[in-house]
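User: Round two. Same drill as before: sequence, then structure, for each protein.

Assistant: Same drill it is. First protein:
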Amino acid sequence: MNADRDGDLPLFRWRPPPRVLVFPPERRRDLVERNARRMIEFHPSKAEAHLQRLLASVGERLLRLGCEVEQVRQHLARLECAVRAHYARLRAIDSSGGAA
């Protein structure tokens, strides 16, 4: 068997599938702050629609990059949480007249 002598068995050619590592979108402070500020300018229903569009856009991008579906879901849940938290902080500051 030539394959045995050359070390060219299928086992030796096998490579694990590549794993895509992305910078977590929920840690992109500019993305979180920019979108929370945009949401402040909208009526609450429009703000919710904006957030859903953002999540869809980021999710599609992560899938195109090759992230696994479960990984994308986790990133989107954390991104949504981060944007909503910043949005709530901005609304609290806005309603209190600018004082934190």
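Second protein:
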Amino acid sequence: MKFDISKVAVITLWMRVFHCIGQSNRPAILENSQSLIFALPDAMGDEDGANYMCSLFSSNYCLIGYVISRTQSARFPHEEDFYDFWEMILPMYRDLNWFSVSRTFNFELGHCCNYQSTVYRMFGQDRGVSPAFFLEKVTNFTSHGKRLNSIKADFRRDLCVNIIQTVGFGTGSLKRRGGMQGVVYIFPPDGDERVHLFSYNNIQRELQFDWFKENIICEDQPWICEKFPPITDYHDFQHRRRLLSYNLISTYNDSDV
């Protein structure tokens, strides 16, 4: 079976992914960072955006992909790389919540595998990484070496909060895009009473991958917490996180905003 992706579609998706993860599209990226990127569903968001698209398929999260900022080896692209990755990811994309959420591939929204394979081409093949290596990275939910290093948010003036659109966990310093400096972050409202709040200055400490994994990812995919359990001292941290959320919610509810 032959698949054809035009250069225009690849470039368009490249721009959408960079917009989604909150990184600059400037050619020089000095830091060697890697990040597992997730979109948060937002049914009230832009209908052409990944967050709205995600809300059509999950109430918790959608995997965007794995981003590698710099070339990892001198490996040359193989002609069959794109199709090899296609065949690898097809049986498992639903188990990862890795749905196609790009209007670039409007014909396969919620499905596979032009979107996923193009993400591999951009951030795997073009970085000297084989399909198997990239697949290992995108399916590795271990907590070791994963710290919040990417966040994209929109500032909501009426609520005076930064609504988080995407988060990334991996290596490298934290990169922020959008939002208002100094303003609390929240996950998109989901219609129930849960409110996840995170302070602006301490979000790396408060929004840890273990918390995100147990409370967001594993709500949809319990097998991930079974295969990649949280760290042993996580539940003590979780207790502190609940207290922090309670204090922030109380403060927010008592404000005049």
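Residues 1-12, 22-29, 242-257 have pLDDT under 50 and may be disordered.

User: Perfect.
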